[in-house]
Here is the input.
Amino acid sequence: MTAFSRIEGDGYLWEIRSENHRGLDIRAKLPDELQTLETELIKAVRTSTSRGKVSILFRSNRSVISDPDQRQSNLLRLTKVMESLANSLPSTVTPSVDLLTLLKSSETGSDQVLNVTYDYPTVKISFESALTAFHVERQREGEELKQTVLEKLQCCRQCNTELRKKNDYQVSTVQSGIEQRLEALNATVDAQRLAQEVALIAQKADFSEELDRLDIHLDEIESRLSDEEPTGRRLVFLAQELAREANTLASKSQSGDCSLLAVDLKVYVDQIREQVQNIE
Here is the structure.
């Protein structure tokens, strides 16, 4: 969900950036003269974005005045202001537009000397260009994240394949281990009761069900990555389910080989969880 676009035009500068966020939070920083456009601009972002903390920033590189009469009026005002400023300044200081701008900025915190009349159609067009560039950047990052997640999914599948091979061996090892300990103790137990207890312990050591559910979640995540619609929240949920099954599987691992594979699986699942947080 992170992206940045910057568009500079004739007197205009737009910056749109987004950061990771659970929901959608859009904020615009516009000059007073463009406050009437804020709702429209936010709506434009909202219709094409579903997650992320989005910031919209507009700056004016220079005073852009579309009305010739307004331009002439402002020039006359500027001339009068500079004449008045010349009378109040020491003889060693020469009034200039830069000096006037500096004084005005210190008083109002604004970088504009004159009241600026913005050309709204031009402003909107430049914003649309910035928004298009913003979405192109998000799309590019999304494709890269998709490939990263797919690679981690493949790593999880490889772990699952190896764990399936070792699952039956682990169950039989648990059964034979119990029988050997009883034999070493010369204990006499009811054969039927022994079979029940062995079956119960072996069932607890069997993690084939967790592997089945892991495969289902992995398939679902891969399928969702191909969706055209926003699917980030769904991916976050599926990644949480992956983590739950991986933790259960790790707790059932009895042998050293299974435990090592379970740890590798948990690492890959955690990496998937981190990455899907960035996907819209």
